[in-house]
Design goal:
Blueprint (H helix, E strand, L loop, with lengths): L20 H15 L16 H34 L114 H8 L13 H5 L15 H4 L23
Helix pairs in contact: 1-2
C-alpha cells in the first residue's frame, strides 16, 4: 500500500503574502508542521497501533493551538482595553463589578454606571448624585443615608435593598423593582416612581409624606406612587400578592376598588 504524502514547499520558492498575512501565516505553520512528520519506512515492518498517525495528530494539534493563541491573545486584550475606555460594550454602559464591594462614604457623582453590578455592596453614606444606573443590579445593597439626588435609577433591580434615610430627591425610579426593600425615612421629594414595583406597606408609608414633582419627567411624586388611586395598581406589587393585593371583597367585578367600602384610598 502506498502511503499518502504531503507536498512540502521548497525553501527556495518565493512566497507572496496577501493582506491577511496572519491567517496565511497560521495555515503555513500547519503545513510546515505536517511537513516535519517523519516519512514511513516501508521496510521497518508494521508500525505499532497509533504510531506515526498519533504523532502527526499531536503535532498538528500543537501547531493549531500555538497559531490560535498567538493571534487571539493580543486581539482580546485590545478589545477589553477598548471596552474599558468607552465604558462598556458598545459604549452603552460600564457593566462594572461592585458586588459585595466596600463603597462606604465614596463619591461617584455624575458617573455612568449603567448595567453595573452592586449586589450586596456596602454603599452607606456614599454620594451618587446625578449618576446613571439604568439596568444596574442593586439587590441586597446597603445604602443607608446614601445620596441619590437627581440620579437615574430607572429599570434597576433594587429588591431587598436598604435605603433607610437615603436621599432620593428628584431621582428617577421608573420601572425599578423595590420589592422587600426598606425606604424608611428616605427623602423622596420630587422622585418619580412611575411603574415601579413596591410592596403595599412600603408604598402606603411613602404616600404619607410624598410631595414634589420630578424636574426631569414632570411627574408628581404622589401620582407616580399611585397615592389615592382607586385602581388595583394602587395596591403595590403584583409580584408580592400576600402583601400587595387588596382583599377580594374590595374589588368590584371590573377589578377596581369598590368605592362603597370606603377603603379605596391608599393614603
Amino acid at each position: 500500500m502506498t502511503s499518502a504524502s504531503v507536498l512540502c514547499p521548497s525553501p527556495l520558492a518565493p512566497r507572496l503574502l496577501p493582506r491577511n498575512s496572519r491567517s496565511v501565516a497560521s495555515r503555513s505553520s500547519l503545513a510546515t508542521a505536517a511537513c516535519r512528520v517523519p516519512p514511513v519506512d516501508e521496510n521497518a515492518g508494521p508500525a505499532p497501533r497509533g504510531g506515526w498517525r498519533s504523532l502527526a495528530s499531536a503535532t498538528l494539534l500543537a501547531a493549531a493551538v500555538a497559531a490560535g493563541l498567538g493571534g487571539g491573545i493580543p486581539a482580546l486584550a485590545e478589545l477589553n482595553k477598548y471596552e474599558a475606555d468607552v465604558r462598556g460594550e458598545f459604549g452603552i454602559g460600564s457593566a462594572a463589578q461592585y458586588g459585595s464591594a466596600d463603597l462606604k462614604k465614596t463619591v461617584h457623582v455624575n458617573e455612568n454606571l449603567r448595567r453595573a453590578n452592586f449586589t450586596s455592596a456596602d454603599m452607606r453614606e456614599s454620594n451618587f448624585s446625578g449618576s446613571t444606573f439604568n439596568g444596574a443590579y442593586l439587590e441586597k445593597a446597603v445604602a443607608y443615608r446614601a445620596n441619590f439626588t437627581g440620579a437615574d435609577l430607572s429599570d434597576t433591580l433594587m429588591d431587598r435593598m436598604v435605603l433607610n434615610e437615603a436621599n432620593l430627591t428628584n431621582a428617577v425610579l421608573v420601572r425599578s423593582v423595590l420589592t422587600r426593600s426598606d425606604l424608611g425615612g428616605a427623602t423622596i421629594e420630587g422622585a418619580d416612581f412611575s411603574d415601579a414595583v413596591l410592596d403595599l406597606t412600603q408604598k402606603q408609608a411613602l404616600c404619607k409624606y410624598a410631595s414634589g414633582t420630578n424636574p426631569t419627567t414632570g411627574v408628581s411624586t404622589r401620582k407616580s406612587l399611585g397615592c389615592g388611586n382607586s385602581r388595583r395598581s394602587a395596591y403595590g406589587s403584583p409580584s408580592s400578592p400576600l402583601l400587595s393585593a387588596p382583599p377580594p371583597k374590595l374589588l368590584d367585578r371590573d377589578g377596581f376598588c369598590d368605592e362603597s367600602t370606603g377603603l379605596c384610598d391608599a393614603n
